[in-house]
Amino acid sequence: MRIVSGVQPTGRLHLGNYLGAIRQFLDLQSAPAHDCFFFVADLHALTTIRDGATLRSLTLEIATDYLALGLDPDRVAIYRQSSLPQVTELAWMLSTVTPMGLLRRGHSYKDKIARGLEPTHGLFAYPVLMAADILIVGAERVPVGRDQAQHLEMTRDLATAFNQVHDEPLLRLPEPMILPDAALVPGIDGRKMSKSHGNVIELFAPEADLRRSVMSIVTDSTPLEDPKSARGPLYALLKLLTPPEEWAESRRLFTTGGQGYGALKTRLLGLVLDTFRPARQRREELLRDVGFVESVLNAGSERAATAAAPLMAECRRACGLAG
Fold first, then answer.
1. Rounded alpha-carbon distances, angstroms, from residue 154 to 106, 114, 173, 264
2. pLDDT-derived band at 146, boundaries 50, 70, 90
3. Which residue numbers are catalytic?
4. Contact 229/264 with Cβ under 8 angstroms?
5. Paired strand residues for 192
6. What are the Cα distances from residue 6, in Å, to 41, 104, 138, 173?
7. Domain 205-285, CATH
8. Is the dihedral of CA 199, 210, 64, 1 positive or negative?
9. Range(s) within the chain of domains with CATH label 3.40.50.620
10. Which CATH number applies to 2-184+290-319?
């Protein structure tokens, strides 16, 4: 089963990225039947990052983080989106059959404009490029959260339109892989953890910065001796990171009282550091071996290009383009 997913290099990876996606990627790569393609979406990032040096640095950083967290280049393809020119070529082919109304209904576009982003064509046509990312490698499944289902539906709509125009089943219609364990991870302010909200706990931040982030988690004014609320972000984050066999004790600290929020936040900080200590150490090693990271990206690009070439040849033929 071929699986594809990507992440924009618009900032450093955070706890929401790991719990909501990367942890599941690690599980997916361990299944022999899975053929996984994970890319760094640097073309998508052009809608918000206009400095070339910054984008190059962040792209390499995300790839480094993927490897530090355990993605295995012998099992999966890890590549830059921009290193696969068939993506942008297919995106243009798809754009010729994309109804404007479909793009106007995009929740992501509306949300980003509401947050003050400039309403550019790149932002508006984001779903077309995203569809090309998925379709060009013939993905059968796409891991998505429940709040991302519309994106994949648009991809299926565009693939269907393209196939109907050319009267051939050229593009495979991918199915969503709604990961049952994918978590909606709250940020330190209680909203969904997101770089755009500025409420993240970065995985690889210096320990002092991690402490500041964790200690900034919003809580109420419940006295130390009283039971604490199980509705806030602190409870949810502790539950997500605490090993199942230890959760009963953590939950007891909330329900019986006697512990202040400061002590509970310190407990969470310890869990973050313990959970990611091996990855943090591995990352330091990888940062001293940029050549290895580049070699992984190059090998992943070659693998993705091999997967994309036959489909692109068929699409060119169907469209009447030089082959």
1. 9, 21, 11, 43
2. low
3. 112, 192, 195
4. no
5. 186
6. 6, 23, 15, 18
7. 1.10.240.10
8. negative
9. 2-184+290-319
10. 3.40.50.620
Which pLDDT score is estimated for 147?
63
Enter the pTM of the model: 0.89
Secondary structure of 184-206 as H, E, C letters: CCECCCCCECCHHHCCCCECCCC
> How crowded is residue 114: how many other Cβ atoms within 10 Å of its Cβ?
8
Distance between CA atoms of residues 49 and 47, nearest Å:
6
* Total count of residues recorded for the chain: 323
Per DSSP, the three-state class of 221 is coil
Inter-axis angle of helices 52-69 and 261-287, nearest 10 = 100
3-state secondary structure of 82: helix
Q: How far is CA 165 from CA 152, 154, 155, 159, in A?
A: 20, 17, 16, 10
The dihedral through the CA atoms of 314, 320, 321, 323 has a sign that is: positive
DSSP lists the bridge partners of residue 175 as: 141
Residue 179 has pLDDT above 80, yes or no: no
Indicate where the chain has its CATH 1.10.240.10 domain(s): 205-285
